[in-house]
Structure formats: structure tokens, C-alpha cells
Write a structure and sequence with these properties.
- The complex is a heterodimer.
- Chain A is an all-alpha fold.
- Chain A has one domain.
- Chain A has six helices and no strands.
- In chain A, helix 1 packs across helix 4 and helix 2 crosses helix 5.
- The N and C termini of chain A lie far apart (about 45 Å).
- Chain B folds into two domains: about 290 residues, 3-Layer(bba) Sandwich (FAD/NAD(P)-binding domain), CATH 3.50.50.60; about 160 residues, Cholesterol Oxidase, domain 2 (2-Layer Sandwich), CATH 3.30.410.
- Chain B has a seven-stranded antiparallel beta sheet with strand order 7-15-16-17-14-20-21. A five-stranded parallel beta sheet of chain B has the order 9-3-2-13-23. A four-stranded mixed beta sheet of chain B has the order 1-12-11-10.
- The chains are: A mainly alpha, B alpha/beta.
- At the A-B interface, helix 2, helix 4, helix 5 and helix 6 of A face helix 2, helix 9 and helix 10 of B.
Chain lengths: ~130, ~500
């Protein structure tokens, strides 16, 4: 069983996830557990190097925030955190753009992978197809 | 290590491997022993739930998120009994004549490809959906496309009993898609061909394949493997590699064939794609009905193809550029979203290739050429015009900054959508039409196989999948894969006496 990636970085990851998906701020502990569980299952099937890179990236973003704004990710207000991450998303260095894309994608996987989120946005696909709409 | 002996071993059970299995199956009655190895699991019908993450994990390599080496594109390819035919949308087109002519493969004519494609179109129940089964997402594409001056065509689809779940890319929950898991593999097995799932081919030796069979893990979907978990050496008189455009070249590379075949791994193309989204003012039927019913083919003139599409919440979220409130607002508009898939017809270039890392794992090196980016930008502009012509309020275009274009700017899409905003690593690019790596051609210096999939200089080794394509096909590939696999099987049958010591059976 692969070691879990998110528990030691939970505050930082949740701060990032709420920036990527503002609605995540309304998740209760059960919602977070479901979202993070989906992400951990995905990561468990990836090579250990991928899990290490993710942990390193989250720590790096936290330190960059401190260096640039004098505050860690968890202490930045939502607007400044969003601008900070947007600047990295547009960075000339591919590594930063890729990093933001990767963390953002994991946050989307956790959030929108939940049935409650799918229902909330009005997604209604059903195996019964047309029959389910009549 | 356990040893097993067969006459023919086929690595892979998708459009290529499944077809070869079916076409060689009549040889079984002459005593020929045939084995298909499939890396993925075999799912029972009731395991196709349509739930996004669990089906992606069960049916795709890396859950559909296999990244290229520089991390700027995800590749989606199936890993299950039936390979990628389990997870495609069933679009069934015959290869364009101009493409086959440009490939210039000795002995390969368009007439032959077309004839064999027709055979599989009939076998797989390919037809046009009735008008009453077309949803709004597709209708808007047709209306907008025609208003914007495009020729819109309907996709022939390989469906039988489609209920319109819209879940094709997660494996049809109604067993309506006629992939190799429904047609060719059951035929082959009913004639005595053996299939072993959860069986990964590690290496090809001299007339042999090293295989590891893995047991089902707790919580995984699918049946237990047909063989006990463990390591096997499978000896065979003929080995057919049909593991796809990533799997086949990487298997041959880690087996040491790269030294004698310098073109092995080269010529990788994939039709890089964007998912474009537009918001309408009213709800439309989009997540019900077949998702991919129409297309616009601008490949010959402008290097792109547009297709209707509809994806699931996470896939949609991932493919929108950016994040935050604007991204969330678009996601909340899901019932009003129209989607178009834009595909660039990329060209084989030397730097784009399949390789293996130190551990033998596949690595896909891919850079977007200027030509590919230009084609994606043209395709995005065309799509934006189609969306607005269909009445959309706003369009999300990855190659625009900001990506959201409002209706009042509809006449400025050519200025707003521009190659300078195509920023790899920021925007999402994905591909599911993976081609090349074991290209057909004239000789071992410039290609891997001849026009019948015979590996140059290795008569007992054949390739039978999309890795044979020497360049981009410029349309959806599965029918052409089947046509080429049919040729490979015909070649083996015609040489059965020399290769297998078996009399030729009627197919």
C-alpha cells in the first residue's frame, strides 16, 4: 500500500483546491474525505516518483508564496492566492505551468468526481439514456 | 517461470488483436493453438456503471491521463478485454484515398483498405443513427456548421441497441457498442482461441513472449485472470504484436529490436485535440443521446477535423483552461453547454516518437509543431464561429486570452483566438487517436514492417495495430486498424504452411 500523499500537506492542498474550485470551501469533512480519497486512489496507482513530485510541488508553492507575498498559501486571502497561482499558470517556465495544471487537475478530479458535485452542476447522464428523460 | 507453447500468440485484444484473433480462429480446427494476451481486465456487463472515475481507472491506461514526456498532453488509450474499442464512440469511417496514396506503401492500395473496412463495417453493424435519436448538442453543431458555411456529415456508428446513455467513452453500460469485446473476440473464443486477461507482455524473445499475469486486486473491477498469477514464458511459432501505438513500439524496443530497426518508435502522431465548450441561454439535451454523431472534415484543406462530443464533469473541468470563479461558472452551466472536439491532423516528424525509460516503461516524446498549432488555432476559430452561429452566448476557446469570448465579440474570433495564446502546459490538450511507431514501409532503414505487418528481417514477428500507420490517418482510425489487421491475418494464413506447418483453413 502506497503512503498517502495529502495528509501531511492537507492545509496547503485544501487552500489550493479552494482556489481552483471556490465551491470546495463549502465542503464538510465528509466531502473532503471523499474528494481526497479519490485523489489518493489515483495517486496510489502511479509510480512513487509521481507522488514525491506532487508533494514537492505543493511544498514549493507554499514556499514561493512566502517568498513573494510574505505569507504561506494558507494565510493568503483568496484573491491574492488566485492571482499568485494565475501568475504561475502563465509563467514562461514550462515546469511551473505544468505544475499548476497538474495540481489543478487533481483538485478537479477530487471535487467533480463526487456524485454530489455532478448533481450540483446539473449533470444527469444515466445508463437508461433517453428512457430516463421521458 | 512457467512455460506454455502455442502456435500463434497475439499481444493485445483491441481493434488490431481482436481482428487477427477472429481471422485466424478457423485455423484452430486444423490443430493450430492460438492465444491472445490482454493486459487489462475483462469486465462483466453489470460492471459498466458509467461512473466517471471508476470506469476511467478500470478501462484506461493511467486512468486516461497518460502524460507525454514533457507533460503537455494526455493520451487516452484503453486497457481492457477489447482494448480501446471498449471506450471509443464507435465512429466508423473509411480511410481517405489521398492519405493511403500519400503513405505510398508497396502493395497497399486504397481499394484494398476500403474493401476490408466495408467487411468490418457490416460485421460491426455500422449505420447512421435515426434523426429522432440525435440530441440538441449534435443538432446545434449541424445547424451552426451549415450556417457558418461548412459541410457537416453524419458519422456512421457501430451500435446495436443504443439507448443514448452518452457514456460511450466510459464503456457502454448497455452492451450496445460493437467493439472487439462484443464481436471479434467472442467469435474467436467460440472457435477455440484462448484469451488471457491481466497478462502483460514484458519482452519478446526468439519465438517467445515473456509474460506476467497479475491477480485481481481488492476493489478492482473485472474477472480474475484465466491463468494463475505469475511469470510465464510463452513459446510460439508466430507472434503478433497488437498492443497499440504506445504499447507495440515500446514492447519491441525493450525487447532489443531497436538496434536493427532504427525507425522503431518513430513517426508517432495522435491528432492532438481540444475540447471546446460554449454556453447557450437555455438547457439543451447534451448528456443524453449518442455524443458523437456529426463531423466536419477540413483535413485536406486546413489540417483539422471537428467532431461533436460530450464529456463528463471531471473531464470537462480538466479541459477548460484556468480555474476559479469563471471556471466554476462555466461548470455550473453544464445543462446549457454545447461541446465540439477539434482535432489537428499532425504530421510525423523525427522528434515525435515512442521510447522506453531505463525500466522499459513507455515514454512518448511529443512537441507541438508550428503546423499542428496553426491547425488547432484554425479549428478553434471555426468552432467558435459554429457555436455563435448556433446561438451560443459565450465560447470557451483555449487559444484565446482570456479564454471566454462573449457573443458581442463574435465577429472578432479570428483576432482573439491566436497561436500566441497556445501555451503548452497551461492549456489542456489530449489525444485518443494514437498512431505510428512501427510504421509500414519499404525497408528496415526507414520503417519497421512491410505492407502486411511483417517485421523486416523477422518473418515470425508481425505487427497489427495503429502503430503500423506511417503517418497520421486524418480521420478516426479504428476501421482502418481492422482493415490492416485483416491484411496481417491474411498474410499469416497464406503462409500458414511455412510458418505453422498447418494447412490453410478457409476464413
Amino acid at each position: 500500500m502506497a503512503a498517502l500523499v495529502l495528509p501531511p500537506l492537507r492545509p496547503q492542498f485544501r487552500a489550493l483546491a479552494q482556489t481552483f474550485v471556490p465551491e470546495a470551501a463549502a465542503l464538510d469533512e465528509g466531502g473532503w474525505a471523499e474528494a481526497e480519497g479519490t485523489i489518493e486512489r489515483f495517486l496510489a496507482a502511479r509510480p512513487a516518483s509521481v507522488r514525491r513530485q506532487l508533494a514537492l510541488l505543493i511544498r514549493l508553492l507554499d514556499l514561493l508564496s512566502l517568498a513573494r507575498h510574505g505569507r504561506r498559501l494558507t494565510s493568503l486571502d483568496a484573491a491574492r492566492r488566485r492571482r499568485f497561482l494565475e501568475s504561475l499558470q502563465d509563467a514562461p517556465v514550462l515546469l511551473f505551468r505544468r505544475g499548476i495544471w497538474g495540481v489543478r487537475t487533481l483538485a478537479f478530479m477530487g471535487y467533480y468526481g463526487r456524485d454530489a458535485a455532478a448533481a450540483a452542476i446539473g449533470y444527469r447522464a444515466d445508463a437508461r439514456g433517453w428512457e430516463a428523460r421521458r | 517461470m512457467i512455460e506454455r507453447t502455442y502456435d500463434v500468440v497475439i499481444v493485445g485484444s483491441g481493434a488490431g488483436g481482436g481482428t487477427v484473433a477472429q481471422e485466424l480462429a478457423p485455423l484452430v480446427r486444423n490443430g493450430v493453438r492460438i492465444l491472445v494476451l490482454e493486459q487489462g481486465p475483462r469486465l462483466a456487463d453489470d460492471e459498466f456503471t458509467g461512473r466517471e472515475q471508476e470506469m476511467a481507472d478500470a478501462l484506461y491506461e493511467d486512468g486516461g491521463g497518460f502524460l507525454t514526456a514533457d507533460g503537455t498532453m494526455t493520451l487516452a488509450f484503453g486497457r481492457a478485454y477489447g482494448g480501446s474499442t471498449v471506450v471509443y464512440t464507435g465512429t466508423s469511417l473509411v480511410a481517405p484515398e489521398r492519405v493511403i496514396r500519400a503513405w505510398d506503401i508497396p502493395g497497399l492500395s486504397h481499394a484494398d483498405v476500403a474493401r476490408r473496412s466495408s467487411k468490418y463495417a457490416e460485421q460491426n453493424h455500422v449505420h447512421l443513427l435515426a434523426p429522432e435519436l440525435i440530441n440538441d448538442n449534435n443538432r446545434l453543431f449541424v445547424e451552426g456548421g451549415r450556417r457558418a458555411g461548412f459541410v457537416v456529415e453524419q458519422f456512421p456508428l457501430n451500435l446495436k441497441g443504443c439507448r443514448g446513455s452518452s457514456l460511450c467513452n466510459l464503456g457502454c453500460p448497455n452492451a450496445a457498442k460493437m467493439g472487439t469485446h462484443r464481436v471479434q473476440l467472442p467469435f474467436a473464443q467460440s472457435h477455440g482461441v484462448e484469451v488471457v486477461t491481466r497478462a502483460e507482455a514484458l519482452k519478446i524473445g526468439d519465438h517467445s513472449v515473456s509474460v506476467v499475469v497479475r491477480g485481481k486486486q481488492a476493489g478492482e473491477k473485472g474477472a480474475e485472470p484465466e491463468w494463475e498469477p505469475g511469470e510465464y514464458l510463452v513459446r510460439a511459432k508466430v507472434v503478433v504484436v497488437a498492443a497499440g501505438a504506445v504499447g507495440s513500439p515500446s514492447l519491441l524496443l525493450r525487447s532489443g529490436f531497436g538496434a536493427r530497426l532504427p525507425a522503431l518508435g518513430a513517426g508517432f502522431t495522435c491528432h492532438p485535440a481540444h475540447i471546446l465548450v460554449a454556453e447557450h441561454g437555455r438547457p439543451i439535451t447534451n448528456d443524453v443521446g449518442h455524443p458523437k454523431s456529426y463531423f466536419i472534415d477540413r483535413a485536406a484543406d486546413e489540417g483539422y477535423v471537428l467532431e461533436t462530443c460530450m464529456y463528463f464533469p471531471f473531464t470537462t473541468a480538466k479541459n477548460l483552461t484556468g480555474f476559479g470563479p469563471a471556471h466554476s461558472a462555466l461548470m455550473r452551466a453544464f445543462p446549457r453547454l454545447q461541446m465540439i472536439l477539434v482535432l489537428a491532423c499532425d504530421k510525423a516528424v523525427p522528434e515525435n516518437r515512442v521510447a522506453v525509460d531505463r525500466d522499459g516503461r513507455p515514454v512518448v516524446r511529443y512537441r507541438f509543431t508550428r503546423g499542428t498549432i496553426a491547425a488547432m488555432v484554425r479549428a478553434t476559430r471555426a468552432s467558435a464561429k459554429i457555436f455563435f452561429a448556433a446561438g451560443a452566448l459565450r465560447v470557451h476557446a483555449p487559444s484565446a486570452d482570456p479564454p471566454l469570448i462573449e457573443r458581442h465579440d463574435a465577429d472578432r474570433v479570428d483576432q482573439l483566438i491566436d497561436a500566441r495564446h497556445f501555451l503548452p502546459g497551461k492549456i489542456s490538450v489530449s489525444a485518443a487517436h494514437l498512431m505510428g511507431g512501427c510504421g509500414m514501409g519499404r525497408d528496415a532503414a526507414s520503417s519497421v514492417t512491410d505492407g502486411h505487418g511483417r517485421v523486416h528481417g523477422v518473418p515470425w514477428l508481425r505487427v497489427a495495430d495503429a502503430s503500423l500507420f506511417p503517418d497520421s490517418l486524418e480521420i478516426n482510425p479504428y476501421l482502418t486498424i481492422m482493415a490492416l489487421a485483416d491484411r496481417v491475418a491474411a498474410g499469416i494464413r497464406s503462409e500458414a504452411r511455412e510458418l505453422l506447418g498447418a494447412p490453410v483453413a478457409a476464413a
